[in-house]
Amino acid sequence: MEQRDAALMTGAKGATTLLFKEGKLVFPPENRDVAQDFPKVVKRIVDSLKPKENDVVIIGSADTLEKAEYGALAAALSLIDND
Questions:
Q1: How far, in Å, are 38, 49, 75, 80 from residue 12 at the CA level?
Q2: Fewer Cβ atoms within 10 A, N terminus or C terminus of the chain?
């Protein structure tokens, strides 16, 4: 929720935060395997980013690429601020 809210404040429409855990991309906090619903998307993300254990992947969404990027960055920064 906090990452999404941070993205919204920058003009993005949202942000999806995923965690790479035990070789899978999961939705925290319940750690539901994203590949169950989106296997092709997960394969593409994992092949492209090559995440390591406990890496976070944030996907920003917006009407423009710039707003999506700012939203994803704001969401990432909200994680750092909370540590």
A1: 22, 22, 10, 19
A2: C
Q: Any idea which of 31-35, 38-42, 64-68, 77-81 has the lowest mean pLDDT?
A: 77-81
- 47-71 per-position pLDDT tens digit: 999 999 999 999 999 999 999 999 9
CA distance 34 to 63: 24
- What letter represents residue 42's amino acid? V
Return the pLDDT at 17: 93
Q: What are the structural domain ranges in the chain?
A: 2-81
CA 1 remoteness from chain centre: 12
The CATH H-level superfamily of 2-81 is GAD-like domain (3.30.1360.30)
Q: Are 56 and 19 in contact (CB under 8 A)?
A: yes
Write down the pTM of the prediction: 0.82
